[in-house]
Amino acid sequence: MKLAINASIHLSEIRSSDKEAYVEHLNDKDIYDRTLRIPLPYTETDAVEWLALVEKSTKRHGQPVNWAIRNEKDYLIGGIGFDGLAIGKSHLAEIGYWLAKPYWGCGIMTAVVQRLCRHAFEEFELAKITAHVFPHNQASARVLEKCGFREEGFLRKHFRKDGQFIDARLFALLR
């Protein structure tokens, strides 16, 4: 499956050949600081485990729920997907995403989130898509706001990372 975003960016299934790109891009403290589940350092073992998880999830759902964001050369530059999704059973899911630092500030993630939310509403028949954002991640909050998400709450000490409690802003988009 391939979803076109614009002339130079598209979404496709995650491939085992993406392992090197994951290790290259995700060994970045700025990405680590803005995400909950991406470890630092990000190793080949982490990439292999992620690829196995994606394969298992795709089989369970009968289609992808996590995608690679690719440039015009078909090279992985980011990722996006859904958590808490049971296709045909759940009415909501949480979206999560990351983008390689050289591509920040180019409008790519806003276009990708818009396209994938439209896909999720149409194909997965979701009524609501949520997203958690750390308070210091203003860029991600702005992406969500540009895509029509509204802030529904501020969750104090909602996550734990590096032994510290972290607050989160909860955003949601309704169909």
How would you describe this structure to a colleague?
The structure is a single chain. By secondary structure, this protein is an alpha+beta fold. It has one domain: Gcn5-related N-acetyltransferase (GNAT) (Aminopeptidase), CATH 3.40.630. Helices cover 33% and strands 32% of the residues. It has five helices and eight strands; from the N terminus they run ββαααβββαβαββ. The protein has helices spanning 19-26, 29-34, 44-61, 108-123, 138-146, and strands spanning 2-4, 10-12, 66-70, 76-83, 92-99, 128-133, 150-161, 164-174. It has an eight-stranded mixed β-sheet with strand order 1-2-3-4-5-6-8-7, sandwiched between helices. A hairpin with a 5-residue loop joins β1 (2-4) and β2.
Map the helices and strands.
Layout: E1 2-4, E2 10-12, H1 19-26, H2 29-34, H3 44-61, E3 66-70, E4 76-83, E5 92-99, H4 108-123, E6 128-133, H5 138-146, E7 150-161, E8 164-174
Parallel strand pairs: 5-6
Antiparallel strand pairs: 1-2, 2-3, 3-4, 4-5, 6-8, 7-8
Helix pairs in contact: 1-3
Brief sketch in words of this structure:
With about 180 residues, this protein is an alpha+beta fold.
Biggest sheet strand line-up: 1-2-3-4-5-6-8-7
CA(first)-CA(last) distance = 23 Å
Pairing-aware structural class of the strands and helices?
Answer: alpha+beta
Shape: globular
Radius of gyration: 15 Å
Question: Key features?
Answer:
about 180 residues; alpha+beta; Aminopeptidase; eight-stranded mixed β-sheet; 5 helices; about 35% helix; globular
